[in-house]
Amino acid sequence: LSAGAKMGCFTFIKVMMILFNLAIFLSGGTLLGVGIWVKVDGESFLKIFGALSSSILQVVNVSYLLIVIGAILLVIGFLGCCGAQKESKCLLMMFFSVVLIIFIAEVAAAVVALVFTGLAETLLTGLVTPLLKEKYGVNDTFTQIWNVTMTEVHCCGLNNYTDFNNSYFYQTHSSYPRQCFGVSPPLSHPHLRGCLLQGCFGQILKEIRTNAAVAGGVAAGIAALEIAAMAVSMYLYCRLDEK
After folding, report:
1. What torsion, rounded to 10 degrees, do the Cα atoms 196, 197, 199, 204 define?
2. How many domains does the chain have?
3. Is the residue at 105 inside a domain?
4. How many whole angstroms separate alpha carbon 137 and alpha carbon 132?
5. Residues 152 and 206 reside in one and the same domain
6. Are residues 169 and 236 in the same domain?
């Protein structure tokens, strides 16, 4: 290619890099804002998006998750946008490094999720079950999240109804949560007292496996975008030496 064509290609890729990372920056700001909103006023968030609560996000703190993801996207968007705009090799290398670290972490997390599902269940049980015993029926937001989850996913507790044994709720009401009873049509494996045996973790895993192809496609798309972003940042980085 001629020098003019190379310069035109460099300029086009630079502009695309700026626009792409500007979109990432704005998305990160939006997620950060939503995360802060959920943290400050979780009840309003649940009233609006309660029907969407039947997901694995219900066993973690959604507000902190959104804040962390939003902050990471803000950093990535800032580094990529400013690095391309200012043609800064330092910022472009930092952008490349951050995306590479995230990519490696995602691959590691996928491997762990596939190989150590049992370990993940053990860790979740150790973390979430004590919270169910202590906070269910005490913390309104926590209780509402689990009520919606148990209703939508058709489950009781994380592992099963016994997660509520010796809990604050059971000691106060001498019964399991209403969401564990009286579901119509009747669900499989009712307890002798009419309580569901299946826990939410197992039900969520079934849903994830059912939609594994979709989840895998989304993950592959994200990985492809990350690889493309790293390749573009390296192209700009190397071309700056020629300039």
Report:
1. -80
2. 2
3. no
4. 9
5. yes
6. yes
The whole-model pTM stands at 0.60
3-state class (DSSP) for residue 239: helix
Q: For the chain, first and last CA: distance in Å?
A: 15
Quick: pLDDT tens for 45-90: 555 555 444 444 444 466 777 888 889 989 999 999 998 888 888 9
Structural domain range at position 204: 111-181+196-242
Please tell me whether residues 129 and 82 are part of one structural domain: no
- Residue by residue, DSSP assigns 50-110 as GGG--SGGGGS-HHHHHHHHHHHHHHHHHHHHHHHHHT-HHHHHHHHHHHHHHHHHHHHHH
Instruction: Look at residue 102 and tell me if it is in a domain.
Output: no
Residue with tokens 């939508």: 152
Q: Residue 56's pLDDT is what? A: 40
Mark the ranges of the chain whose per-residue pLDDT is less than 70: 1-6, 41-62, 113, 116-121, 182-197, 208, 211-212, 215, 242-243
Dist. CA 89–CA 76, nearest whole Å: 15
